Each structure stands twice: as structure tokens, then as C-alpha cells.
């Protein structure tokens, strides 16, 4: 019997926020696999005892990105890890957007401010400041040119914690057409969803935010699919890539641009797309070497 671990986070006394997790565990077990959900930082887990470890909802990793990448490398040394550790390392730092842009992928224009860099904030348009290692809009905020002092304090806080900031123009198309998330699994397009704007004007960077507001199913356009596939083709050393989510927004020209490429722990939104469960299950089993 093939053994599959779905790596997650430890929710402590609270219910897990990953609604996909029990669905996938049940589907894999019904298909004959010995499937379990395990916190990635559980010190008692012997990862070599699994035929495949699939990173699913390690949603606390961005607070400990270095530790997480080290875990991924150690895990990959003793078993098969999806996605592979080299992709995890590349994708945990959002400076990968620069690599995509260099490869000709249309991305949201981005500048990076490391600790010690001068602020250099925009003064003619709305913009977003967030860390290069983050999830769920952690430490992200939206500013106008009149908010300069607040933005500087935001940058100072991130730099004090050793975080590199990324500064992007706020694309107003998000307020109209939202953000579209195109999911791929097993090398194939799986489904897509659309959500509303996450960052409201005036919301503090350290305030809790709803990461996926007004989420609905979405049918992607040919242009959106083309940009998503272009982004995936630009991933370095992409062999072994099991899953991906490409988050798109409209640029000032109305054309889709990559906001983020999620190759570590993307929410699959299976509760919104229950028909995708079988495809995800089968792709995981194929990746484990199971014949069915």
C-alpha cells in the first residue's frame, strides 16, 4: 500500500483552515492509499516512511521561510517531495517575479527594497507594499501618495525584522475584474476562481485580512490561459512540478498580468470545485508511482 503524507500546518487548539485536507485524505484512502495529514514541523515524523510527501497547507511557513526551505530539502533527501525542494526554494521568495519578467512573462511591475535601502516610494499613484516572503496578505498594505509617512513606518517595521519589501503599483483593474486564480495539477489545467480585492484603502499592514473575499468559480479567457502557461514554462528546473496556481490581475492596458505564482502551498478551493477532487487524487497517486 502506497503511503502518502499531505504536509500541513499545526492549527493548535483551533480547527484547521484547510477545508481541502479532509476531502483529499478521504479520497486517497478510498482509492487504496495510506494517506495522512501531518504538520510539516512535527519533530516526531519520519518522512522517509512515505512514498510521497505533498506540500498542501503549510500556511505558517512564511514566518519561518528559512526553516521551511531547510525542511523541504531534508524531506526531499529521504523521499519524493511535491513540489520539489528546488522549486520550493525559488518560489518562497517573491523576487521570482523578476525572473519571470526577464523571461518575457507579463507581471505586475515590482521594485524590491532590502534592509538598508532607501525608501524610494512612488509619489504619483497608489501602490502596494508587502514582503517578498509572505502569505495571506501578511504585512501587505495599500497606500496613496499622501500616505508616505505610514508607508515609511511600514517599511521600517519590515526591515527591522530582516524582511525585503516589494513595491508594486496598485492596479485599479482589481476593483473591477478582481484577481483570477488558475489552478493546474498533474500538468493540466484544473479549474479557476475569481476573488475580490483584498487590500482596502486605509487598512493597516498588520491588520487581519480576508485572503479570498467573494470567491466564485471562473472560466478563464484564452489570454489568461496563455499568460498562465507562459509563466509555468518559465519556472526553472520545473521537472517534477505537480501543482501550481497562477494569480492574475488586469494591467493598465486591460491585459492579464501575473501577480503571484503559487508553487508551494496554494489553496485549491476544492469546496468551490468539488468535481476536481478526482483529478487531484489521481495526479497524486500517479506522482507516488501508483498504477491504477
Architecture blueprint of SSEs:
Elements: E1 3-8, H1 20-30, E2 34-39, E3 52-57, H2 65-78, E4 80-82, H3 85-91, H4 96-102, E5 111-113, E6 127-131, E7 141-143, H5 148-160, E8 165-169, H6 174-177, E9 179-185, E10 188-195, E11 216-217, H7 222-233, E12 243-250, E13 256-262, H8 277-287
Parallel strand pairs: 1-2, 1-3, 3-4
Antiparallel strand pairs: 5-8, 6-7, 6-8, 9-10, 9-12, 10-11, 12-13
Helix pairs in contact: 1-8, 2-3
Summarize the structure.
The chain has 292 residues and is an alpha+beta fold. The chain contains eight helices and 13 strands.
Plain-language structure description:
The chain has 292 residues and is of the alpha+beta class. 27% of the residues lie in helices and 24% in strands. The chain contains eight helices and 13 strands. The strands form three sheets. It has a five-stranded antiparallel beta sheet. Helix 1 crosses helix 8 and helix 2 (65-78) packs antiparallel against helix 3. The relative contact order is 0.17. The model has no long low-confidence stretch (mean pLDDT 93).
Notable traits:
24% strand, single chain, globular, 292 residues, five-stranded antiparallel beta sheet, alpha+beta, 27% helix
> Given the C-alpha coordinates, what overall shape results?
globular
Number of strands: 13
Sheet with the most strands: spatial strand order = 11-10-9-12-13
> Percent helix among the residues?
25-40%
Mean pLDDT: 93
User: What's the tally of helices?
Assistant: 8
Name the poorly predicted regions: none
Distance between the termini: 12 Å
Estimate the strand proportion: 15-25%
Q: What structural class results from the helix and strand content?
A: alpha+beta
Largest sheet: 5 strands, antiparallel
Element pattern in H and E: EHEEHEHHEEEHEHEEEHEEH
Q: Nearest-angstrom radius of gyration?
A: 19 Å
Amino acid at each position: 500500500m502506497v503511503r502518502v503524507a499531505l504536509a500541513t500546518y499545526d492549527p493548535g487548539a483551533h480547527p484547521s483552515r484547510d477545508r481541502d485536507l479532509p476531502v483529499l485524505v478521504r479520497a486517497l484512502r478510498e482509492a487504496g492509499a495510506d494517506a495522512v495529514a501531518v504538520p510539516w514541523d512535527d519533530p516526531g515524523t519520519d518522512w522517509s516512511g512515505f512514498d510521497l510527501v505533498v506540500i498542501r497547507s503549510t500556511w505558517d511557513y512564511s514566518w519561518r521561510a528559512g526553516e521551511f526551505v531547510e525542511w523541504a530539502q531534508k524531506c526531499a533527501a529521504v523521499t519524493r517531495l511535491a513540489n520539489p525542494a528546488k522549486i520550493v526554494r525559488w518560489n518562497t521568495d517573491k523576487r521570482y517575479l523578476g525572473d519571470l519578467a526577464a523571461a518575457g512573462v507579463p507581471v505586475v511591475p515590482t521594485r524590491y527594497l532590502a534592509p538598508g535601502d532607501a525608501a524610494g516610494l512612488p509619489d504619483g499613484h497608489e501602490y502596494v507594499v508587502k514582503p517578498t516572503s509572505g502569505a495571506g496578505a501578511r504585512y501587505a498594505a495599500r497606500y496613496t501618495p499622501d500616505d508616505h509617512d505610514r508607508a515609511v513606518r511600514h517599511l521600517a517595521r519590515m526591515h527591522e525584522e530582516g524582511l525585503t519589501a516589494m513595491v508594486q503599483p496598485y492596479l485599479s483593474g482589481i476593483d473591477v475584474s478582481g484577481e483570477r486564480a488558475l489552478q493546474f495539477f498533474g500538468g493540466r489545467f484544473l479549474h479557476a476562481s475569481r476573488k475580490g480585492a483584498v487590500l482596502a484603502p486605509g487598512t493597516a499592514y498588520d491588520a487581519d485580512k480576508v485572503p479570498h473575499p467573494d470567491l466564485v468559480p471562473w472560466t478563464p479567457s484564452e489570454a489568461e490561459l496563455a499568460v498562465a502557461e507562459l509563466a509555468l514554462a518559465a519556472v526553472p528546473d520545473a521537472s517534477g512540478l505537480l501543482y501550481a496556481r497562477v494569480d492574475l490581475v488586469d494591467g493598465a492596458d486591460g491585459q492579464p498580468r501575473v501577480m503571484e505564482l503559487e508553487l508551494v502551498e496554494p489553496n485549491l478551493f476544492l469546496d468551490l470545485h468539488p468535481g476536481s477532487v478526482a483529478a487531484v487524487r489521481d495526479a497524486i497517486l500517479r506522482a507516488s508511482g501508483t498504477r491504477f
